[in-house]
């Protein structure tokens, strides 16, 4: 069994992995897949340099392009098992295929690209999210998140679901910082009407949304069903503002996720979000609407 050097040993904390000694991501929380990707790249670079080879010299021996090898070393590309096999054969070790397979297994928990979003979210000064599918992750209660994951990931074990829930709840700590990012959440009304987890879970969930909406720096708006066709019908997305004022957009599907950084593309998301602000109920009207549906769920729960 291959042992990871002590200086690169990841430590688990709160369901996430913290690198204790690696210069690759020192003092950053990343999911397990990202930690393994970082180690794969660092170990490949270490062995290449120990062999006195450049990336261009190594690439033919791995039957891969120098561009791919370079990206793997700096964690810009997820290493696949076939590359792991080539690396093991070239360096005469039993390391890289195991790592690549572990990465593939861990990555099932998150869409590819999600770790990049987590990094951006953690340092964002403003988070603007549109969601027509479910309650935004930063606003979810534990039981709502559990029911959501259980319904969408029926093949996962209770332990795996528990890890996903723990990771989601840990993300919410950014809203409790002394100087939290500003949050603007626009939600399609169908999200409030979808009884995820049943009426009791939904009543508590809607109470959480309404309470969060009363925090300084947080705005919640609801887009009613009566609203005509609008840009949000094309899909959910999140806008993140970096400390330097630039913005990035994030979109996600079941198996993949993407950060958009090109200014002209981000501008399209900004325009769509500004349109949604206008189409949605006012913040006060939205909170009142949420409270009314919350009461309906409470009455339904009491009647059962």
Number of helices: 12
N→C terminal distance = 54 Å
Structural class: alpha+beta
Total discrete domains: 2
Question: What is the helix/strand order?
Answer: EEEHHHHHHEHHEHHEEEEHH
**What is the percentage of strand-forming residues?**
5-15%
Q: What is the CA-based Rg, rounded?
A: 22 Å
Q: So what's the CATH class of the largest domain?
A: Alpha Beta
Q: Architecture of the largest domain, CATH level 2?
A: 2-Layer Sandwich
Shape: elongated
Say what the CATH topology of the largest domain is.
Answer: Endonuclease, Chain A
How would you explain this protein's 3D organization?
With 304 residues, this protein is an alpha+beta fold. The chain folds into 2 domains: 6-107, 434 Repressor (Amino-terminal Domain) (Orthogonal Bundle); 114-303, 2-Layer Sandwich (Endonuclease, Chain A). The chain has helices spanning 32-50, 55-58, 66-73, 81-91, 96-107, 114-123, 142-152, 158-171, 189-193, 199-213, 263-279, 283-303; strands at 10-13, 16-19, 29-30, 126-131, 182-188, 218-223, 237-241, 247-252, 257-260. The strands form 2 sheets. A 6-stranded mixed sheet has the order 6-5-4-7-8-9, sandwiched between helices. The longest helix is centred in the last third of the chain and has 21 residues, at 283-303. The radius of gyration is 22 Å and the shape is elongated. The N and C termini lie far apart (54 Å).
